[in-house]
Specification:
This protein has 129 residues and is an alpha+beta fold. It has one domain. The protein is globular, with a radius of gyration of 21 Å. It has helices at residues 81-95, 120-128, and strands spanning 7-10, 13-20, 24-31, 34-42, 44-46, 49-51, 54-56, 59-61, 74-76. The strands form 3 sheets. A 5-stranded antiparallel beta sheet has the order 1-2-3-4-9, covered by helices on one side.
Length: 129
């Protein structure tokens, strides 16, 4: 099976593999010699296939542009390497079935919102129904 390459280009960016597990990869993104950010990507496993008459072996790949973001993959700014590494661990644990709280999502507030009858907000809500 062809594994993910340690360096490649996609969408005009240079990708450098920093860390990976069986299911998740952490890349540094570069524009020339400048770090543009980091990506944590789900690793996809592709079956051997024939494409336009060419035999392609089993391989690993990063998500397509259409799947990126919808599959849990995320991009981080250059100053967010620590956050990218944290998400790399959490996302890997999630895909491996480890039950962990997601530290990167804001906690839901349990505060109740009270609206007084006759207030503009309450009237707006009544008119919206």
């Amino acid at each position: 099976m062809e594994q993910l390459k340690e360096r490649f280009r996609k969408n005009g960016l240079g990708y450098k593999l920093l860390d990976r597990t069986e299911k998740v990869a952490l890349f540094q993104l570069n524009i020339g010699n400048v770090i543009a950010g980091y990506e944590v990507c789900k690793v996809y496993f592709n079956k051997a296939r024939v494409l336009l008459g060419k035999n392609l072996p089993e391989s690993e790949s990063v998500p397509s542009n259409e799947k990126f973001g919808y599959d849990g993959s995320k991009c981080f700014f250059p100053h967010d390497l620590k956050l990218a590494k944290q998400y790399f661990k959490e996302f890997g644990d999630k895909l491996s079935g480890v039950n962990m709280p997601n530290l990167l999502l804001p906690k839901a507030k349990k505060d109740k919102i009270s609206v007084k009858a006759g207030s503009g907000i309450a009237q707006g809500l009544n008119n919206a129904v």
